[in-house]
Amino acid sequence: MMKNVVEVRDLRVVRGEHEVLPGISLDIEAGVTGLLGPSGCGKSTLLRTLVGAQRVRAGTVTVLGEPAGSPGLRDRVGYVTQAASVYGDLTVAENLGFFARVLGVAPGAVDDAIDAVALGDHRDRVVARLSGGQRNRVSLAVALLGTPDLLVLDEPTVGLDPVLRRDLWGLFHRLAAAGSAVLVSSHVMDEAERCDRLLLMREGRIIADGTPYDIRDRTGAADVEEAFLRLVEVAA
């Protein structure tokens, strides 16, 4: 796989009269990259540009060597939105089976994906009857079908208990160890320490980029949350 899975150059996104992303540039490599920042800072907008679901005013976004949203990327990029994106009137297994046929992946991938998100005991339950966290895990299972080269996850651990959060982060690192790039957004700063690399975001701009250790060391902070606050103060 190429070194840079994602290349963003001078990206501007404007919504109405509000400039959401003011011309940012960044690269993403294989591994687990955390995109952290407060709600409303532009994280979801940036993620949508990577999967080709966001209209941009200017700049370029290249994913796996192709323009974001290209047809050739459909089975190479997995995307999980904050809202569950599966069919509520189908069971967990039926949802996975449907998307497996759409993607053309082997039937055995369904069981693997269900097991990966710890929903084996709920495979025959209708999705509408699951909890919000369980529905989100069904969406994640769909994104895992076909073993994507890039997995884009928008706040995937919201509403999950600590054990499931720990297990999902373990899954993200196993995927990265197998060669995938995993980009995880979150507004929960304590998840930062679980990432190989961090992009700290505020008001549409990347204010820090590095390993958790590098960012703490650079700011003299005890943890990433304190580092973020110090960076905000410097930028003010």
Automatic annotation (TrEMBL):
Alphabetical list of InterPro entries matching this protein: AAA+_ATPase (IPR003593), ABC_transporter-like_ATP-bd (IPR003439), ABC_transporter-like_CS (IPR017871), P-loop_NTPase (IPR027417)
CDD domains according to UniProt: ABC_DR_subfamily_A (cd03230)
PROSITE patterns linked to this entry: ABC_TRANSPORTER_1 (PS00211), ABC_TRANSPORTER_2 (PS50893)
Keywords linked to the UniProt accession: ATP-binding, Nucleotide-binding
Keyword Ligase: no
Domain annotation ABC transporter: ranges: 6-228
Coiled coil: none
UniProt GO MF annotations: ATP binding; ATP hydrolysis activity
One Pfam family here: ABC_tran
Protein's UniProt name: Efflux ABC transporter, ATP-binding protein
Organism: uncultured Nocardioides sp
